[in-house]
Amino acid sequence: MIDPMFLDTPLYRCEALEPDLGCAVSVKLETANPVRSFKARGTELVASLLAGQGPRAAVCASAGNLGQALAWSGRARGLDVTVVASRFAPAVKLDRIRALDARLELVDGDFDMARERAAAIAEHDGIRLVEDSLDLETCEGAATVGLELVDAASSFDAVLIALGGGALATGVGHVVKALAPGVEVICVQPLGAPAMTYSWRRRRVVTTDSTDTIADGVAGRRPIPAVLDDLLLVADDAVLVREESIIAGMRMLLHHAGLVVEPSAALGVAAILEDRDRFAGRHVVTIVCGGNVDLDAYHGWVGAAPLR
Amino acid sequence: MIDPMFLDTPLYRCEALEPDLGCAVSVKLETANPVRSFKARGTELVASLLAGQGPRAAVCASAGNLGQALAWSGRARGLDVTVVASRFAPAVKLDRIRALDARLELVDGDFDMARERAAAIAEHDGIRLVEDSLDLETCEGAATVGLELVDAASSFDAVLIALGGGALATGVGHVVKALAPGVEVICVQPLGAPAMTYSWRRRRVVTTDSTDTIADGVAGRRPIPAVLDDLLLVADDAVLVREESIIAGMRMLLHHAGLVVEPSAALGVAAILEDRDRFAGRHVVTIVCGGNVDLDAYHGWVGAAPLR
């Protein structure tokens, strides 16, 4: 059900990164597609199933990437898509959602406020609410990244996964733990948006009052209980990284791999930078999960300091 | 014989480019692999064949990308690789050749002088001379890009191919003309390095005394007669573009597609920019053939002016 354009994405060693990171590093590149993130794997499933049913409309809350992906998948199938996002989301994400013919509604708050608004719209209009990470299709779609990884799993030791709502981490984690149990599944979240990591560590939902991170794609405050339950089954670890490490990771991915990525996609490299001893001599795969970034902000981060 | 890592590269529509270009544009992305260009498709063939034979050594001249690719493919098969390049080649290309354990010899001249030196080394040492675009394996490797394109050829009208020595143009052109003859094959070269285009137009080899272009990957002065013969059979057109169009193309690929590319990889977009009427309403594929670029130079080009 997923357009092949979103599948079998590049997976390759980046040796130029390795002197600085002290381990073998491969990237799984999810940015080279029409929506520049892995999210379409899930929205293709959602939209395919929905297109076969009755009312052909859906609404989702999004930090930006899910909304863009649902807009793309919905447009391809004649669905009426509404996206609710924070007005503080990167302009490039909001612009692309509009360009894909979705109705975009902005809330004067963060992603968790957008979730409330999307739920209200769904109830009022009687249309499908697509809940990222809770709706199993979003996790199953993300899990196809894991299927592609395990085909090559004999060669690596750990996979680093950006942790936001949890679709990518539970989807990939489920597949990896089922089919390549020797591979360590490590989730990475910013210190400035630690709710799911705290929840994983305490084995119960922990919410926070606010977030403070440039990694807009993973900045949630209220973990979904059912997603936490899944994450507890499949994650070997969940680590938190500093903002300066995320920026250093983005800079290294540009300078040594030629990749312009959004902050969430640099979380894996940031995790290696913060704990080189843990990864020394191992082969680590990091999922470069998205590349939708405002270039002005990007240049401010990445150009602000010399490479090392 | 080609490592699958280099095959089945992303091919996708970039709608964000289209308002400025006035046509449907898809990119075939050849930068998401360990050598960041399409050249490994050919060197994988060369090295595989060579590894099965006697003397396990080879030398090539390179503008930078072939050398990096031959170093990669040779290292994987225990071959002894020597690369001859201009000392004016981008540092990032030379650094990566050295990092891949190849012997690098620099000449105080341009690519065509490096070709002469490589031939002398091959003769003196009695080792295999790998001649890009002349050796059929280099064209056959590049032709696999064409095979992947024709699988999707029903949906597009023209393919834009960077023209340097001619391996990519003759390889892709041969496959496209054989299997999807309705697709227009358009080669693109910088006005500052027009020798092969002039040769194609006059149907005889035309050399130039010098080159003057930022597109280092395609800056040759002396077309190879046998390659011209092939190009005459498969190219529908060969066009020349200005430096400012190449820079505008690089800038658009960054801003609208999130891709950092070397100048040669922006030739296709440059060709559309210079002749919007020709492509209006059509669906064009441009092969983004390489991403090895010195970032300081890149920022100087791309950051030097506003987007439009």
Automatic annotation (TrEMBL), chains A, B:
Top-level enzyme category: lyase
Tryptophan synthase beta chain-like PALP domain mapped to chain residues: 7-290
Gene3D superfamilies to which the protein is assigned, alphabetical: 3.40.50.1100
Coiled coil: none
E.C. no: 4.3.1.19
Domain of life: Bacteria
Record bears the keyword Transmembrane: no
Keywords: Lyase, Pyridoxal phosphate
UniProt-listed GO biological process terms: isoleucine biosynthetic process; L-serine catabolic process; L-threonine catabolic process
Single GO term (MF): L-serine ammonia-lyase activity
Keyword Kinase: no
Cofactor(s) needed for function: pyridoxal 5'-phosphate
PANTHER family: THREONINE DEHYDRATASE, THREONINE DEHYDRATASE, MITOCHONDRIAL-RELATED
Name of the protein this chain belongs to: Threonine dehydratase
Phylogenetic classification of the source organism: Bacteria, Bacillati, Actinomycetota, Actinomycetes, Streptosporangiales
